[in-house]
Design goal:
The complex is a heterotrimer of chains A (about 375), B (about 575) and C (about 400). Chain A has about 375 residues and is mainly α. In chain A, about 40% of the residues are buried. Chain A is built from 14 helices and two strands, in the order H-H-H-E-E-H-H-H-H-H-H-H-H-H-H-H. Chain A has a two-stranded antiparallel sheet. In chain A, helix 5 runs parallel beside helix 14 and helix 12 runs antiparallel to helix 14. Chain A has a domain of about 250 residues: MetI-like fold, CATH 1.10.3720.10. In chain B, strand 6 and strand 7 form a beta hairpin. Chain C has two domains: about 260 residues, MetI-like fold, CATH 1.10.3720; about 60 residues. Classes of the chains: A mainly alpha (about 375), B alpha+beta (about 575), C mainly alpha (about 400). At the B-C interface, helix 1, strand 1, strand 10, helix 7 and helix 13 of B face helix 3, helix 5, helix 7 and helix 10 of C. Chain C: It is a multi-pass membrane protein. Chain C: InterPro entries: BPD_transp_1_N (IPR045621), MetI-like (IPR000515), MetI-like_sf (IPR035906). Chain C: Pfam families: BPD_transp_1, BPD_transp_1_N.
Chain lengths: ~375, ~575, ~400
């Protein structure tokens, strides 16, 4: 036990801080020394890069269905699809707005009209028949199917990258919405106290009584089409109560501190006291909670997808991929494992980062993790 | 510290012992299990059984029908070819003795009894007629009929699901001590042999409601007694009160012996059953409402028979279950596109014709249905399905996509191709909305394929998804085309409401005065050959008007774990348990 | 104490009223309860019936009042199937309570035990593995984990039960597990040398393999019932059997859903316990106790653990209230007809207004009640609160 007992409180005690580091420097230093958190941060950044940049250069689009059934349930592979590969060509096409002006686009070279000999529609080979019947769908990319394909032939790697984008975007929006709401409400309640505090806290209690899944179910029925942005609004709108309570508690104790008294005595406005003096002192719990709410949001979005209320096809999120492919475990295991592992890795990383941040912000901790 | 460790170990040891004990308990039960032949067959029900009276509008559900098929007596039943076959267990004969007025004489088997020993007789037929003929309406405290202010429909005393057919019957007379029943119609009804199915025991309603004789009360217009009987008929049979063996009596090979809400219904052999005994000792319905979990339960041998809605993932999952026997067939539910005749665009015949010519029905079937049901075909008849002998392909020109003809049809009508590749006439672009239920990925794909194909023909298609299209879109008329499915039926009488002028299910307000007489004939014609001819004539008219376009039958899946025999798919509303008495373990 | 309870109740009741109005408006605008009927041929009669029973033609405030006055008498009305909702509600609550209670007990016991050890041995190998495992559990989507459980915990395990035996790989794996367990047990104190740990490990390996051999001999030539269920909470074929077989069957069905729920909550509880323990262990009074020469065990269990427990108990009470209405996914995956079933039937496809209201109100009451319980426990356990 001896190693945790020799702590020295460092908050605001600048005169004792012999190396004269600011609080922020201390926090950053402690975080940088948190090995697991740092590894997680690197992994997470790499995954985000892969998702946002990788998806742009990857040979397949997440939504496009190669409408010829040839790509149905391809197992993951590192090699190109044999014999069905065409180069990308640059062609001039008229713009939509003005038919006189042309612009260039990259697209797959058109398929030769007779790729498969004797594809007349009655060869007995259904693949050949199919291509003969639907020539306009016969185009395929050259890239290998790293993660395999699903039943309709969509490339799972492209879908996973797109899903990661969506999930991260949703989760970050949830974190922003819930943290902003929570901090504002918690700060107002804790600073002004009195009737405002009572009203805000009763409102917090009230929202806690309504299950967010029920609201999501109702709103999910109401909106249709490409409306993924509703999800972070719902999750954020129902996720700020925890942070609000924490910030209220922080503010209740901070407002009694001498430096706040001093600021008030020197005639600072409430707004200034809240944002300049008190919030910076509560930044630790805010950042930690925001980080952890990212992890929670990814899983909550997964739950929504399972109930059919999440991101709608053809758009995908990791949650919708996992819930769509949950039955594929025994027959097409790649569909089950890849999106699931992506979720696990992301949520794990975010949690480790949150853990590292918590340790870093904790003034009692000056022994960092090995 | 050590002592706590030891304590922990002890806890673990006790835990292991408990598991072992549970295992050995289970083992004991295995030795007492019934012999393999016959045995218990478990079916995974997607919805829960909840009432014995499937004839009420609340109780009219497939989940109830599945349980009640082998429990309640029916004069005729649907076989696996959707033909109505007389039940030789219940009846000696059922004869149409006169066609003017239509008169049907049923002779009930002398030894037919309910499981409580009371004979199955004419009273049960009378109750079916009284409860569903629609003449008895609810009365308010002041004696005036209660009506629904929106539709003006008066609310019936017996909360019946449908009055179709029974409302045509003038009287149900009894003879031979109740074993001969004569039903006389005042207006002919073509599907007379579909009536008097799933009979409710009249003696139970009488005993429980304290009415001595319902038929007499009806004859005497004793509203007080009828209200009492109706009260029990409406609410007395629900399963939320549990299984009362004096209420849920059986006159079939099986009887309901136990019901665990949220879990299961158990049917066991009916000791009073007079017909050929069932092969299995018991049929168990286990509630697994998430269809994606059913294959896993099949694989874990918790159920032997499942019939979830098929999709490619589910089929692939079943492929992974060793020994499973999987079969997919087209059922009676069919997808179709309806035109809105109130819309300025789709009320024009050339527009409907052009759309029918660019609607890629074969492509939709190939891409969306074939992966699930390899034998699926495009449906080209509004009244019969491809597996019926009466089915005729009446689609004519519309059988195949013909972009050139679609364009020439429009151009002949004065439409001109605009610079955006879409036809226009008099400043109106040919842009049509397809209303469909949301979320529904398959329908989204159907609309996508349609839009791609029709764009080539210069027609713009806009997807109009809504969560409640029957409430929010169809009544407003703000759509051109509606994409939805009818739960079809082999009964031609049921078609009238969909196509006739002002029909309750004719959402698009289609009307053709030449068609209406044929539709009337469908409800009244007693000669099967003439009925088929009328349906064919009606179908040709609907095709000529391009009023609605059928696309495909919904695929139905039947899968067993390979240990049972006798499970045969039935395309009608009877469902898989239509022949439950022939189910058996191998 | 009584004062506190009464004061909290006085706040809770108006809040529930506001909540009921809010959710009533929400449900009323959720969708048309007649949608399914409208899409069915020949259904005017049924539409008229349902309009009358649900008072759909009355204005919303009148409908609310009709619903509210009935609800006060414990009558939740009837659902779209014409069934009374009351009995369904009580049954659903009973079913959910069963799995939630069992999983909470399991999660709390495991979570607190692991959390305390993690805190006492902060940054040890045990701490790292426990942290990793709980984060891993927390990171898994529920239904994804459920699929794994069903495949390995049910189907494969049952197949094994039908033809049991421990293969060579099994011997090795179980032996290694045993070795790890014993070496950890004996090596728990930091002072234990590496050699002794190794010896403990080898002994553990040998012992476990020996036990396995005996078990294997015992299992040979036997075949067992497929014990673990993947759906429902009972197998109806056991309905007529004695108490013990039925209990065994019931446990076999509860095992997977309870494990699923427990694993998720366990992750939270173990982390929370660890944090709470770490905080109390570094508190001044603990330092004082140590300085006074109180034994380490007494410091941990008498001084630190008791205080650390206070926030944990309140968190458990709050969680219990929340999970009660929120075990929807676990219930769906395992076809358990609890509160989640009400949710699905009422809100997921077609709207069933009375059922939706029943579900939402019960969930809300539940949250409020468990909030109250958490407050009371907190006040009871924490002496500082009592003075207020």
């Amino acid at each position: 036990m001896s190693e945790t007992t020799d702590t020295t409180p460092t908050t605001q005690d600048h005169e004792f801080d012999v190396k004269a580091r600011t609080q922020a420097q201390l926090v950053v230093r402690r975080f940088l020394h948190h090995r697991l958190a740092m590894i997680s941060l690197v992994v997470l950044v790499l995954m985000a890069l892969l998702a946002f940049a990788g998806a742009r250069v990857w040979g397949y689009d997440h939504a496009r269905i190669p409408q010829n059934n040839l790509e149905s349930y391809n197992a993951p592979s590192l090699t190109k699809p044999a014999g069905r590969c065409r180069p990308i060509e640059t062609v001039a096409v008229p713009t939509n707005t003005d038919p006189g002006v042309t612009t260039t686009v990259d697209r797959l070279a058109p398929a030769p009209t007779t790729t498969i000999a004797g594809a007349t529609g009655d060869t007995g080979d259904w693949r050949a028949d199919f291509i003969a019947k639907y020539p306009r769908d016969h185009d395929l990319s050259c890239a290998p199917h790293l993660f395999g394909t699903n039943q309709v032939g969509q490339d799972l790697f492209a879908q996973t990258l797109r899903g990661t984008q969506r999930s991260l975007l949703i989760a970050i929006m949830v974190a922003i919405v819930s943290t902003t709401l929570g901090v504002l409400i918690g700060a107002a309640a804790g600073f002004f106290r009195g009737w405002l505090d009572a009203v805000l806290m009763r409102m917090t209690d009230l929202i806690l009584t309504v299950p967010y899944l029920a609201v999501a179910a109702v709103l999910g029925r109401k909106v249709s089409g490409d409306t993924w942005w509703v999800i972070p609004l719902i999750l954020g709108g129902f996720g700020w109560m925890g942070i609000a309570r924490i910030i209220r508690g922080e503010f209740l104790s901070l407002r009694e501190k001498e430096f706040v008294e001093a600021a008030r005595a020197s005639g600072a406005t409430s707004k200034r006291i809240i944002f300049k003096h008190m919030l910076p002192n509560a930044v630790g719990p805010i950042i930690v909670n925001a980080t952890l709410s990212v992890a929670g949001a990814i899983l909550a979005e997964t739950a929504l997808s399972f109930l059919g209320l999440g991101v709608k096809s053809p758009d995908v999120s990791l949650g919708s991929l996992v819930s769509e492919n949950q039955t594929a475990f025994s027959t097409h295991p790649w569909l089950f494992w890849f999106p699931g592992l992506f979720i696990i890795v992301i949520v794990l990383c975010v949690n480790f980062i949150g853990d590292g941040l918590r340790d870093a912000f904790d003034p009692k901790q000056n022994r960092v993790r090995a | 510290m050590r002592t706590t460790k030891r304590g922990k170990l002890a806890v673990i040891a006790v835990g292991l012992a408990l598991v072992a004990a549970a295992c050995s308990d289970s083992k004991d039960t295995k030795t007492t299990a019934p012999p393999a032949k016959g045995g218990t067959i478990t079916y995974a029900a997607e919805q829960e059984f909840y009432t014995y009276n499937n004839g009420t509008s609340d109780g009219n559900a497939f989940a109830n029908a599945l349980v009640l098929n082998p429990v309640q007596p029916s004069t005729f039943y649907f076989d696996d070819k959707a033909a109505l076959v007389m039940s030789t267990d219940l009846l000696d004969s059922a004869e149409l003795t006169s066609t003017s007025p239509e008169t049907v004489v049923y002779k009930i088997k002398a030894d037919a009894v309910w499981s409580d020993g009371v004979a199955v007789d004419c009273k049960d037929f009378q109750l079916a007629w009284i409860s569903s003929n629609g003449t008895l309406t609810q009365q308010g405290s002041d004696g005036t009929p209660v009506t629904d202010p929106d539709s003006g429909t008066s609310v019936l005393l017996f909360n019946t699901a449908s009055t179709t057919g029974y409302e045509n019957i003038k009287s149900v007379e009894c003879a031979d001590g109740g074993k001969t029943v004569t039903a006389t119609y005042d207006k002919n009804f073509s599907d007379w042999n579909a009536l008097f199915s799933g009979l409710i025991p009249a003696h139970v309603v009488e005993a429980k409601s304290g009415v001595a004789d319902i038929a007499k009360a009806y004859a005497d217009k004793n509203m007080a007694d009828l209200a009492k009987a109706a009260e029990f008929w409406n609410t007395g049979f629900t399963a939320d009160k549990g299984i009362d063996p004096t209420v849920m009596v059986s006159a079939g090979p099986f009887m309901i012996t136990s019901f665990t809400p949220g879990e299961s219904v158990v049917l066991e052999k009916n000791p009073k059953w007079w017909g050929t005994p069932a092969l299995a000792d018991s049929i168990v319905f286990r509630l697994i409402d998430d269809a994606t979990q059913q294959p896993i339960a099949l694989q874990n041998k918790e159920v032997q028979v499942i019939t979830p809605q098929p999709n490619p993932d589910l089929l692939a999952q079943l492929e992974g279950v060793s020994g499973a026997e999987v079969k997919v067939d087209g059922g009676y539910t069919y997808e179709h596109m309806d035109f809105n005749f109130a819309s300025p665009l789709t009320k024009q015949l050339p527009v409907r014709q052009a759309f029918a010519l660019c609607l890629p029905r074969q492509e939709i079937v190939d891409k969306l249905i074939i992966p699930v049901n390899p034998s699926a075909v495009v449906v080209n008849n509004h009244f019969y399905f491809p597996f019926q002998s009466e089915y005729v392909d009446n689609a004519g020109d519309y059988a195949k996509v013909d972009i050139a003809k679609a364009k020439s049809t429009l151009e002949a009508d004065g439409w001109a191709l605009g610079s955006d590749g879409i036809y226009a006439k008099g400043g109106t672009r040919l842009s049509m909305k397809i209303a469909r239920k949301d979320p529904n990925p398959r329908r989204a794909s159907e609309v996508q394929l349609t839009a791609a194909s029709c764009k080539e023909a210069g027609i713009e298609i806009i997807d109009q998804p809504n969560e409640d299209i029957f409430s929010n879109i169809l009544p407003t008329g703000q759509y051109e085309i509606a994409l939805f499915a009818w739960v079809g039926s082999p009964l031609q009488s049921s078609q009238k409401a969909i196509f006739t002028t002002g029909g309750s299910s004719n959402f698009g307000q289609y009307t053709n005065t030449k068609l209406d007489p044929y539709l009337d004939q469908l409800t009244t014609e007693l000669d099967p050959a003439k009925l088929a001819a009328a349906a064919d004539a009606a179908d040709k008219l609907v095709w000529a008007d391009v009023a609605t376009i059928p696309i495909f039958q919904f695929p139905d899946l039947t899968a067993t774990d390979g240990t049972v025999t006798g499970v045969i798919y039935n395309p009608t509303q009877a469902g898989i348990t239509w022949n439950a008495q022939l189910w058996s373990l191998k | 104490m009584l004062r506190l309870i009464i004061r909290r109740m006085l706040v809770a009741i108006p809040m529930l009223l506001v909540c009921s109005v809010l959710v009533f408006v929400l449900v009323a605008n959720a969708g048309d309860p007649l949608e399914a009927l409208r899409g069915r041929p020949n259904s005017q009669q049924a539409i008229a019936q349902r309009t009358a029973t649900l008072h759909l033609n009355k204005p919303i405030f009148e409908r609310y009042w009709l619903w509210f006055s009935k609800m006060l008498h414990g009558d939740f009305g009837i659902d779209n199937k014409g069934l009374r909702i009351g009995p369904q509600l009580w049954r659903a609550m009973g079913t959910t309570l069963q799995i939630v209670l069992l999983s909470t007990i399991l999660a709390v016991c495991l979570g607190i035990a692991v959390g305390v050890i993690s805190a006492v041995r902060q940054y040890s190998f045990f701490d790292y593995s426990a942290t990793f495992v709980s984060f891993l559990f927390y990171a898994m989507p529920v239904f994804w984990f459920a699929v794994l459980l069903k495949v390995f915990g049910a189907i494969e395990f049952n197949n094994w039960l039908e033809n049991p035996g421990i293969g060579t790989v099994g011997f090795l794996l179980i032996g290694l597990l045993g070795a790890g367990f014993t070496s950890m047990l004996f090596g728990f104190k930091r002072t234990v040398s590496k050699r002794r740990r190794l010896i403990a490990g080898i002994a553990g390996f040998a012992g476990t393999v020996l036990v396995c051999l005996l078990v294997d001999r015992f299992l040979a030539d036997r075949t067992y019932f497929r014990w673990i269920g993947t759906v429902n909470t009972t197998d109806p074929r056991f309905a007529h059997q004695g108490f013990w077989p039925r209990l065994g069957d019931h446990l076999g069905h509860l095992l997977l859903p309870v494990t699923t729920l427990a694993v998720i909550s366990y992750a939270g509880y173990s982390r929370f316990t660890r944090a709470s323990m770490l905080e109390t262990l570094s508190a001044d009074y603990v330092r004082t106790a140590r300085a006074k020469g109180v034994s380490e065990r007494a410091v941990i269990f008498k001084h630190a653990f008791r205080t650390a427990l206070i926030p944990i108990v309140t968190v458990v009470a709050l969680d219990f209230g929340a999970i009660f209405g929120g075990a929807i996914i676990t219930e769906t995956v395992f076809s358990i007809q609890g509160m989640g079933k009400l949710f699905r039937e009422a809100l997921q496809k077609d709207i069933d207004p009375n059922k939706a209201m029943a579900y939402l109100i019960v969930t809300a009451i539940n949250v409020v009640v468990f909030n109250l319980i958490a407050d009371i426990i907190y006040a009871k356990l924490d002496p500082r609160i009592r003075h207020e």
